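Regression check, adenosine-5'-triphosphate case 1011:
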Amino acid sequence: MKNNEGHVVGVNGNMVTVEFQGSIAKNEVGYIVVGDTHLKGEVIKIRGNLADMQVFEMTNGVAVGDRVEFAGEMLSVELGPGLLTQIYDGLQNPLPDLAEKCGFFLQRGIYLDPIPNRDWEFTPVVAVGDKVRPGDTLGTVEEGVFTHRIMVPFGFDAVPWTVKKIVTKGVYNVRAEIAVLSDPKGREEKCTMVFSWPVKKPIKLYKERLRPDETLITKVRIIDTFLPIAKGGTYCIPGPFGAGKTVLQHMTSRNADVDIVIIAACGERAGEVVETLKEFPELIDPKTGKTLMERTIIICNTSSMPVAARESSVYTAVTMGEYYRQMGLNVLLLADSTSRWAQAMREMSGRLEEIPGEEAFPAYLESVIAAFYERAGKVRLNDGSVASVTIGGTVSPAGGNFEEPVTQATLKVVGAFHGLSRERSDARKYPAIHPLDSWSKYPGIIDSERVEKARAILFRGNEINQMMKVVGEEGTSVDDYVIYQKSELLDSAFLQQNSFDPVDSAVLPDRQRHVFDLMYKVLTSDFVLEDKKGARKFFNEMRQKFLDWNGVVTDDPRFAETEDAIEQLLVSKVRQEAR
Amino acid sequence: MQKVYTKIESIIGDVITVRAEGVRYQDLAMVGSSYANVIKLDGNLVSLQVFAGAKGISTTDQVRFLGVPMKVSYSENLLGRVFTGSGRPMDGGPELDENMIEIGGPSVNPAKRIIPRNMIRTGIPMIDVFNTLVESQKLPIFSVSGEPYNQLLARIAMQAEVDLIVLGGMGLKYDDYLFFRDTLENSGAMGRTIMFIHTASDPTVECTLVPDMALAVAERFAIDGKKVLVLLTDMTNFADSMKEMAITMDQVPSNRGYPGDLYSQLASRYEKAVDFEGAGSLTILGVTTMPGDDVTHPVPDNTGYITEGQYYLKNGRIEPFGSLSRLKQNVNKDTRDDHRALMDGMIKLYAAYKDSFEKKSMGFMMTEWDKKLLKYGRLFEEKLMALTVNISLEDALDLGWKILADCFEPNETGLKSSLIMERWPNKKPEVR
Ligand SMILES: Nc1ncnc2c1ncn2[C@@H]1O[C@H](COP(=O)(O)OP(=O)(O)OP(=O)(O)O)[C@@H](O)[C@H]1O
Ligand SMILES: [Mg+2]
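Current build output:
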């Protein structure tokens, strides 16, 4: 069947209006033919025989009358072994391959094969005559440290298919035929290790969705103990510029206790991706002994790359996440920044002359954001295994003010909120997550009773501090002052964590619990401190020792020594009756 | 083939429309004696923005499509020259039309970027110690109007060891243009400088072209192996010109009248900063004046989200709060082992000083600790923050330790014991 064609009748930035014959679908892909280049676009609105397309490339040089070829399919990604370690743009164009072909600069209209053309050792798990459904495993290949399931294409009709042919164990090209299936009517389809899936459609081939109730360890103390995230859950990190959103996500992408990490660099700085790009192939993941790159996919559509592809990039990323979830794996998707994605929608909505909502964002902003986060989830697959996609998105609110549409829409749907504060980042209190304003609905690594008690001290300490600003230190009682000092200690030696310190930057849960136990002891002890000067001196010493403690590795003898010193210092001032 | 049309359908602001066939988006045209480019196609209705402004254009003026996009000449002949936003000579020199290159070209493939690694020394402790400038960084000076931002820009440019300076002036006061020209000439740097200047009285559209012209040329020199420093002042004027054009085009504004794509527009310029592997580099130092000293104003706000930090200029000093160099950690690990810790520690104490200072101004009793902080704050501002200070990074670090030792006991500093053992000055030399 010949696909539809049309021709350009209008150009406004990256929006091109096309007059077409026949029928086309919303979200169908089309190519504008400019000279000998083809510019990819997506139909986002149809009125009569006019289609508005968002074009994923710069549109200079497009003229009225230029031919448009429609592809007959929705915007899709290719799924198959070899996705891991790749660096793609928002449309799944492999950037290193593109660099090899085009040099320093991106060149429009060049779309390369996203799945590396290579051989894999395939082990079949079905036999001729077996019944299979979309998403069922036909066989496996070993992709690095993972067993990659080669599945019945998700887009096949949801009927029982019969295996007509399956290759024997052996080495095959990724695009070679490995199976032939036939549907109940006898229609046959060939399968390779690769198939495509439309990015805007969630993959739902699982038995049931489960509650996200298992902590996802990030090795960041303030998160794991106070504001935990969960496997299959969602969370957001809003914060003004420079408050530390990206650094926090970088740390998480390295340290998170998951199988696979997908980084969606969405409309932010290209330089930030480069750090990951250059460092991950060198860093060893202690869990697997392999480099971090082997568990990572990077989707990189940075701020100066075409805006429409930015809009798609988060969908490209989450689709790959869902694909690996189908293999029984735990996937973490980190999107930086979802505001840029929302802005891409706003730009397009403006060109479509839609009625603008608040701050000119489209009226459907909220539902689109909700639908995106809804693609996270912990699920039980049809084979009984449990797997998850966790989504963490940064938000970049205009003016750092959380009362804006994107932050507000996101807060409605996520399970944890890590709000970064300008005040804390200015004072170099990293990670600048505000411990009192932020919240989480997920369970952490320390019993909630003690955490609540610690939080109460933080809360009270903050109140006292505010009060001191009004009545001065002289107007504050020693008891209150001690509570204030305790809250400061908890803040500076536990909540704050130096991302650039080799030891302190990542702390295992056992150590977090261990440090928390002692910290908790200090927080709940009753001290004999006659005056504020004495109290400050005591807590200064305490803080110094905790900071030193945080800086040494657990099997260094100084670790136990420092712990002893803290205990001794504690005992020296503890009120005797209280013991 | 050049097509000529003589019936202009509408003139709104600096945008005109004509009915024409076969015109390509972003193509260049001559309208009367001014350049213009195509910014919208709707059937055969073509919208063009006129670079020199539409003032005085009549409906029967000639519109001649040139069939090419906007370009700028690139060669060694540019050195020492001054051009307008549309690339015409402003210094009485000859027009240049050899080796024309496109402006606003595609961005660098992220996979081809490398991690920035070379510190740019400025002799300003607030930069070198606390917010180190790095080759290929994009970094604006956030300034309240009336501050000496152009002086600071020029000073950094003179002190930085670069091969080439490209100055993009937008809405520049004529005096400021002369200031730059004289400073560069006096220091003998004019021969390695290229200027694209839009002054406050020049047409709006040309203002929006300045960054693209400057960056296109700079990018080529960088590919050819040069270390290029691009100075863009003042990007707020650029954004305001964009706003004016957007309103003319009836775009729905998103925030205080600015177009919804302000972020993308600014980003596509700033992201030109790059270090080319095996070739040169392009560093961007900009100026963003903050209307009403408000960082949350859309222009500084969007800029902050794009650039790799900012220097916040206030009361003639670079403020430690609000200032940031995001690339500092790439280089400050290799300067001196105490650099990072001292940088963080001193800022934390300065933050505490600010609290004490506030308490004092509210008339509260000063504790012994407050008094220590007050002394520290005073020394910090005098010895390190003042823009008159011009010392090396190493001397500034030593001075930092001296100030700490002069004000505090070691365990009051929040610094690690090991570092204190190594660096704490034994004697307490008085720092005044
Ligand atoms: N945990 C941390 N430890 C030490 N320094 C940090 C930490 N987090 C952030 N910083 C400092 O703050 C700078 C800015 O952080 P980051 O780039 O993460 O900000 P951001 O919130 O992502 O900003 P933007 O919205 O503009 O992208 C970093 O370059 C670093 O210097
Ligand atoms: Mg960021």
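Comparison notes: DSSP finds twelve helices and 23 strands in chain B. The first strand of chain B starts at residue 3 and ends at 5. No diff flagged against the previous build.
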